[in-house]
UniProtKB/TrEMBL annotation:
Keywords: Hydrolase. Transmembrane segments: none annotated. One of its GO terms (molecular function) is nucleoside triphosphate diphosphatase activity. This is MazG nucleotide pyrophosphohydrolase domain protein.
């Protein structure tokens, strides 16, 4: 079993138990070990985030709605990798801009609830 498969199966590393701060630290450590912080500014990271989002969309581009619903027209593993790239760049952007994502998300959901009421 390779390391990534082991991680995927380890319940202690799933979304329910991993704090956002831990994910931010993983990204920060990766960036720092490669001395990439010199390239990380809001412009570059937001562009990279957009590019990765485009790569994510490519997996669904020519599929029918049914193929997407059935999960038959794309590789779930490849989609997961692209989504991880998107999240990594979002976390890197939060790191350099010192944005608390948990607070930002909660605040945005308050606005969304007012803008899009249930009824």
């Amino acid at each position: 079993m390779n390391h990534s498969s082991q991680h995927a199966q380890d319940e202690s590393t799933d979304d329910a138990t991993t704090p956002v701060g831990e994910l931010r630290n993983i990204v920060r450590e990766f960036v720092d070990q490669r001395d990439w912080r010199q390239f990380h500014n809001a412009k570059n990271l937001s562009m990279a985030l957009s590019i990765e989002a485009g790569e994510l969309m490519e997996h669904f581009q020519w599929l029918t709605t049914q193929e997407v619903v059935d999960r038959s027209g794309y590789s779930a593993a490849e989609v997961a990798e692209e989504l991880a790239d998107v999240v990594s760049y979002a976390l890197a952007l939060a790191n350099i801009l010192d944005i608390d994502l948990s607070t930002a998300l909660r605040d945005k959901m308050v606005k969304n609830r007012l803008k899009y009421p249930v009824a």
